[in-house]
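User: Please predict the structure of the protein below. I'd like the answer in structure-token form so I can feed it into my own downstream comparison script.

Assistant: Understood. Taking the following sequence of 323 residues as input:
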Amino acid sequence: MYKQERPLLSIIIVNYNVKEEIINCIQSIKDNINFNNTPYEIIVADNGSADGSTKAIQERFPWVIVIENNSNLGFGKANNIGAKQAKGKVFFFLNPDTRVLGGIEEMAMFLLNHQETGICGPLIFDRENKEVTYFEMSVYLNLFLQITDLMFTPLARLYFTYKRFKFKKKVNNSKPFTINLIHGSAMMFNKTAFDAVGGFDEDLFMYGEEADIGIKMKKQNYRITIFPQARIVHYEGSSTKQSVNTKKDSMCTVAMKTVLKRHFPRTWYIRYHLEMLSQLRQIAISSMNAYSSYFNKKKYLNYRGMVLRHLAQYRLLKTILHS
């Protein structure tokens, strides 16, 4: 049933020690994408899992293609390895901690019929069924908002509230709409566009890949589009919850520096320092709150924890900035 010499859709999933999650993800694909209407293949690029993931996949879904990497190669490199074996005209890169709800077939056909669109993304909901909002803004607007947030936070918050309203309005319109940044947990590419930008940057081990490839797509004059009829749930963090927060924060911060420095050489240094100032402001605010709630043990410990987290992030930013 699932053997196809030339599938229309190649679904590529990078797995690392999340056996239950990826089994549920593949089952949701099987339940919600009609193979007869949209022939597809599933390729799992496993990054050296030690939890029996590959065996479980092969036993339950013997038609799934499993690539066993010898070690944890990271998100971008593993996805590129999967893409090299993919036969479809459309590539759908999906996190293992997601569940497909529907609309994926229609999104694939939209992408094929609109060659000017390089990337499509579905609507994404979190585990509490809250819709994830995307923010679209120019480089210089983003820089201005960082400064505004430091100088007059309510104005920046008001702007983001407005952007959420605009996003919701577009979603309610039910028509595909363009955007500048797509969520990395579910990215569908026209194969031609994916190949044109050289796939994912393998220098980024984890985090920042969607921003990097999105910028490269825009430079090649491809559109990035949200397709509201397609929907998934993202149980965020399953692949990284095994790592301590400091390791995750470090990877995010390194990725942020790499992407900013590469694509925004004129402003990255300023933006990095603005982020450091933002962390210092949060340390000051949390310290004052901790002091004012000293006799309320629960609140005091909560604010004290926030001080320590922001202090750790500031030190991390400072270290990586000068590395």
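That's the full token string. The longest helix spans residues 268-292.
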